[in-house]
Write a structure and sequence with these properties.
Layout (H helix, E strand, L loop, with lengths): L1 H12 L11 H4 L10 E2 L4 H8 L4 E3 L7 H5 L2 H8 L3 E4 L2 E4 H10 L8 E3 L2 H4 L32 E6 L4 E5 L6 E2 L10 E2 L4 E8 L2 E6 L12 E2 L6 E2 L4 H13 L5 E5 L4 E4 L4 E6 L3 E8 L5 H10 L14 H12 L1 H14 L6 H11 L7 E3 L7 E3 L1
Parallel strand pairs: 1-2
Antiparallel strand pairs: 2-15, 3-4, 5-6, 6-17, 7-16, 8-9, 10-15, 10-17, 11-14, 11-16, 12-13, 18-19
Helix pairs in contact: 9-11, 10-11
Length: 380
């Protein structure tokens, strides 16, 4: 405790803090209609899968049903969890210390509370009769088949006005973004999508698609092998120097996610986020059915860029295909077929299994298969 408090006091004493040099408000208003992130009261899972799995949108209703939306405020959290230690970028602080910092700092890039263990620390129930649950519009999260072996997926986010994240793509924890923020919290990835639900406050988002036909956002520089990404040190710096250009650039979408709303971040989309007022949010990464082929390809072909799994997981691709084959065999076969269509020439896992069982004398109409797991599943 003492060393974290000393870190904060020392930083201020040495003049390490800088006032947030601009107000974000002029940059977050008068959004061109062509850039506006679409807003809906809600979607059903089928419509999301068919039309919106690759596009950002804001849903205004689902979060308002959560008990935590009804109960949480900074004062309520402080009263109940004031001595609970949370991660704020590179430091671990009791919530009361972070709240004091959040209320009084004048940093240009304020520390952002971003904790992946909040459910356990706060003894929350994430289920339909619990404190909150994933919005149903996003459908099933296919990484749920991994159970306790899935990588970190959900975070509690607290931050004062002016705090946020400079340009990055969301984690399953793949390639780092440099410098993104001072402590390397940001990553690039093409594995998981995300939703971000604002419980208190409001957040301004600027987003860009990624891919061969899309350039990186203005002010963001990607190495030739795409292993490193450089962006401005602060949100204020980016707003001052690149916001006007970004607003006119192809693919740019922007919007404000208000209290009680949830925003969808498709996998691979660049985004910058700034809190317009002190904010409390919950975010979660997920693998939607519509992105199964991409997730399979990323796990298979870029294992060196996949992290966030425990030390007991040596081969995330084999683990995922094993679990998915146990629970959703037809979905797995379809995902592997789509992956073959997207990346022709690479033998599918499914084909390898069929050949292996054929060589072993199994009947094609009724065979067992395994993906390196002890519990084989029968497929008719």
């Amino acid at each position: 405790m003492a060393r974290f408090l000393a870190f904060y006091v020392l930083g201020r004493a040495q003049g390490a803090t800088l006032a947030f040099s601009i107000s974000p408000i002029p940059y977050t208003t008068n959004i061109p209609s062509a850039n506006a992130i679409p807003r809906f009261s809600n979607l059903d899972a089928g419509e999301f899968k068919s039309n919106w799995a690759d596009k950002p949108f804001i849903a205004t209703e689902p979060v308002r049903q959560w008990p935590c939306f009804q109960k949480w405020s900074t004062d309520a959290l402080l009263k109940k969890y004031g001595d609970t230690v949370f991660r704020a970028e590179a430091v671990d602080w009791p919530l009361r210390i972070y709240m004091e910092y959040m209320s009084n700092n004048e940093d240009e890039s304020p520390l952002y509370l971003f904790d992946c263990s909040f459910v356990e620390k706060m003894d929350l129930k994430v289920r339909s009769d619990g404190d909150y649950w994933p919005p149903e519009c996003f459908g099933e999260d296919l990484f749920d088949v991994l159970g306790e072996q899935r990588p970190d997926r959900r975070w509690l986010i607290l931050g004062g006005a002016g705090s946020g994240s400079s340009y990055h793509k969301d984690p399953n924890a793949t390639r780092r973004v440099f410098p993104a923020d001072r402590y390397g919290q940001n990553w690039t990835n093409k594995l998981t999508s995300a939703w971000n639900a604002v419980l208190r406050g409001s957040k301004y988002w600027v987003m860009f698609p990624s891919g061969p036909s899309h350039s990186a956002p203005p002010g963001v520089y990607v190495s030739e092998d795409q292993s490193e990404v450089t962006s401005p040190l602060s949100i204020a710096e980016w707003l001052l120097n690149f916001h006007a250009e970004a607003r006119k650039s192809p693919g740019c979408v922007e919007g404000i996610c208000n209290e009680g709303e949830v925003l969808h971040v498709p996998s691979g989309w660049w985004h910058l986020v700034v809190n317009l007022s002190p904010s409390i949010a919950v975010t979660q990464n997920f693998v939607p059915e519509a992105h199964l082929a991409n997730a399979l390809g990323f796990l298979r072909d870029k294992p060196e860029q996949v992290s966030g799994f425990g030390n007991d997981v040596k081969d995330p691709y084999s683990l995922f295909t094993a679990r998915l084959g146990d629970t959703h065999p037809a979905l797995l076969e379809g995902g592997l077929a789509e992956l073959e269509r997207l990346q022709p020439g690479k033998k599918r896992k499914w084909d390898e299994l069929v050949e292996m069982n054929g060589e072993n004398g199994a009947k094609s109409k009724d065979f067992c298969f395994g993906f390196g797991d002890d519990d084989d599943a029968e497929v008719p």
